[in-house]
Amino acid sequence: MTNDTQSPEMIDGFHLVIDALKLNGIDTIFGVPGIPITDLTRMAQAEGMRVISFRHEQHAGNAAAAAGFLTQKPGIALTVSAPGFLNGLTALTNATTNCFPMILISGSSEREIVDLQQGDYEEMDQLAIAKPLCKAAFRVLHAEDIGVGVARAIRAALSGRPGGVYLDLPAKLFAQTMEAGAGKASLIKVVDPAPRQIPAPDSVQRALDLLKGAKRPLILLGKGAAYAQADADIRALVETSGIPYLPMSMAKGLLPDTHGQSASAARSYVLAEADVVLLVGARLNWLLSHGKGKTWGGPNAATRQFIQIDIAPTEIDSNVAIAAPLIGDIGSCVSALVAGMGSNWAKPPADWTGAIYERRDKNLAKMAATLALSPSPMNFHSALNVIRNVVKARPDAIVVNEGANTLDFARSIVDMYEPRKRLDVGTWGIMGIGMGFSIAAAVVTGKPVIAIEGDSAFGFSGMEVETICRYNLPVCVIVFNNNGIYRGIDVNPTGGADVAPTVFVKNARYDKMMEAFGGVGAHATTPQELQSALDEAIRSEKPTLINAVIDETAGTESGRITSLNPTSAAKKK
Predict the structure, then answer these.
(1) How do residues 209-253 score in pLDDT, each as one tens digit?
(2) What separation in angstroms does the CA of 79 have from each of 4, 58, 92, 473?
(3) What are phi and psi of 476, to 5 degrees?
(4) How far apart are CA 129 and CA 110, in angstroms?
(5) Tell me, what DSSP letter sits at residue 272?
(6) DSSP assignment of 428-464, as one string?
(7) What is the pLDDT of residue 301?
(8) Exposed/middle/buried for residue 39 (C-beta within 10 Å: 0-12, 13-18, 19+)
């Protein structure tokens, strides 16, 4: 007698995690393999996902954050437990601060051992640590809950103000099995994770009335406006209103920096003089001097009024009074303003726009004269002028930028022409995002990437050039090498053998690092050499690192934010 009854098909936690991600259109994972998630990376690749393996979890997390910003889907970072989790946590918190949607998935030790503090391998209560540092945190203990856990993480990352989410997956979860049909049924395809939030009609009218009565209006675009992908409506708002606009650094390119209404080259003037400021996806944090003080005209700022578009009501009045809050998603709010303006909206007074554009044109002419110079050795201006011209010829290229002086000069010199083509240090001003952001940009867009790096900033993530070579990504890293942090000229005041804390090895050859991993290295001491190497990198789309030698006396302490450095009032006797 035979038994024809077949055992039901089973599925395990590994495959349920992969299937849950794929069901929601997530096809790429950035991470570092290791216990207990090594097999998850292997299986994900076998199931058709792209798995980009890094040398350090923080850079994988930064890549996930940048991918989230560029795609409006949560980027996925995958780490091992405890130390690996902690490495990824910096990126997760940075993503939350910058409103980039990402999910940090970390393997973890078993709950019963962690809770009794019995000393498991890499024991740590990761969920408790993550909770205060991200938008939301969840733990999944049973295979049948994986679908819910992934769905909740996706919705939390994308809904309202986007941010970072932590998903804790204990090692025991991956090996759990359940009947395949039930497992498939337990998965959730998230529907409308970031629903439109329509602004109240009276709040729209209040904002329009305030703009209509303005004598010196200004539109200020933040990176939230770039993330929103409401590009056509934002352009319509600017051009229909005729109001000058000022983009924050990652909003550059929403309209070309060469647009006739751009006030970037008259930034100090418009911030101090504007009487009504419309904030679109920008916060009045330290980057905008909290909306007060000398930057905003000192005592005269008391009469200024703000209109603020934000999806989070709690952001309103965070630093100064907001006269016209406009709560909703950026696309809906901007389109409502454009509709309310109609076709006969009165343009701003000519004396206001004329004063702005006169200053702008004068400043641009001064900048052009400076850029035309070719000192030896190169300085920031002469080197960045080369990159400026290359980006003008290839506006689809993505610029990644970090450093102190390298960041400050690049954002004012290198014009952007298309939205979401500039990624930089963001709200925290954090160093080390360079290679992670560059890898993500290349992976999710397929476009060439130009990473403009200070030599100090490059040091935080420089080993990831091996990752760039391993995946043969079209990334050209340009290291602005002036032999140190800020500058390479400090000396040890004691006369001792140790160099000053801000000084690096003189005449370092960063290009040899790229060559060591099979990429292209170039050494540039003149604008002509830099131009030749960068042109070839863009043409070939091969992994390239250009060591751009900059005058070590160029630059200032801390760049633009030197005022944030405390100074000692005491004198040692």
Answers:
(1) 999 999 999 999 999 999 999 999 999 999 999 999 999 999 999
(2) 44, 9, 12, 22
(3) -110, 115
(4) 16
(5) H
(6) TT-S--HHHHHHHHHHHH---EEEEEEHHHHHHHGGG
(7) 77
(8) middle
